[in-house]
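HUMAN: Mind sharing a backbone?

ASSISTANT:
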Amino acid sequence: MDNHDNDEELREAIVRHEWNQFQNTNNEGGRAACQGNWPVFRQMRLAQFLTWPHELLASYAADLDAADKVGRNLITEKYGRMMSSTAPDEFRKNIEPYIPKLSANRIARQEQVIKQQVVWAADFRVQYPKLGQAMRVLTTDEDTLQATSFETYLRGELSTYSDTTFNLYETMISERASATPPRNITEETLLHTVKLGGFESLKEAEALQAA
């Protein structure tokens, strides 16, 4: 069975579900400006989900539904987990006691996935430096209170996935890393991002970035 049409609806439903959870995420200092920017949120999240296979989409959609049923907000939790790097004292006192604890095995496997994706993101920045400049800083050691890196963001997000969803995600990354040639998921995600923004290709988007 071709899941293409179903996947399009599923992706849109996931993005809308995440947006609804995002609206209920409280930030220190009040509501963040990005919480009012649906078009950019949709573009960024949809670009990511356009790289995912059907089984992974379906599993993550189930995670969001399951979270609602028990009063969890995966978007709030994702941003909370990022604070383990950007605001460690606050994280230890006010967040860590209230979120699910990950096993040592799960953390180790996540770090392998993150390591691969950081390499891909770094490779992308070399190939498309202007587009790369518009991205988050790359690694956790670059985190500040104002700037959360790609690595820390990814770690926060992966940590909210159920075991089933993470297993599927890990398999996807492994398959793309071992493909010939390897499929750089950062490059694929950014290609979808620029196409959703009206560009034909990454080369066109790179050429039209402000110097």
User: Anything to note?
Assistant: DSSP finds eleven helices and no strands in the chain. The CA atoms of residues 100 and 160 lie 9 Å apart.
